[in-house]
Automatic annotation (TrEMBL):
Residues 42-136 form the Protein kinase domain. Gene3D superfamilies: Phosphorylase Kinase, domain 1. GO terms for molecular function: ATP binding; protein serine/threonine kinase activity. The keyword Transferase applies. SUPFAM superfamilies: Protein kinase-like (PK-like). It comes from marine sediment metagenome. This is Protein kinase domain-containing protein. Keywords: ATP-binding, Kinase, Nucleotide-binding, Transferase. The lineage of its organism: unclassified sequences, metagenomes, ecological metagenomes.
Length: 136
């Protein structure tokens, strides 16, 4: 656990504006209008959230031509074997559940040394936003 705590990035993200300071520095620059960069095969539209271990991107899958969510293990965490195992365990657990209130995991892969999950994108407020605005 100490290994995970020491690797946590010190970055800020404003969920309301989608602005990230240092959160998505791993993105490859993109010249396409409307995109903030690319990650692996995905054209990234915006950062929709982040936590201590990962960042969630709203992106376009150019192969299937659909909007997806891509959860990426942050570079600071990707060097930790413990974090990688935990990330994969989370992916397997989520993929094992089929329920209307659980997003569908479409793929687990790695790009530029960073593990990621590609999943269904669902627009709307995050759980954190709902709790802050509506109460628990």
């Amino acid at each position: 656990m100490e290994e995970l705590k020491s690797a946590r990035p010190r970055q800020r993200f404003d969920e309301r504006s989608g602005a990230a300071e240092g959160i998505a520095g791993f993105l490859t620059p993109c010249n396409k209008p409307g995109y903030i960069g690319s990650f692996g095969p995905y054209d990234v539209i915006e950062v929709v959230g982040h936590g201590g271990m990962g960042v969630v991107l709203k992106a376009r899958d150019p192969v299937l031509n659909r909007i997806v969510a891509v959860k990426v293990l942050l570079p600071a965490m990707a060097s930790s074997a413990v974090a990688r195992k935990r990330f994969l365990r989370e992916a397997r657990a989520a993929a094992a559940v089929t329920h209307d209130h659980v997003v569908t995991i479409h793929a687990v892969d790695e790009a530029d040394g960073l593990p990621y999950l590609m999943m269904q994108f669902i627009s709307g407020r995050s759980l954190q936003q709902r709790i802050e605005e509506d109460g628990p």
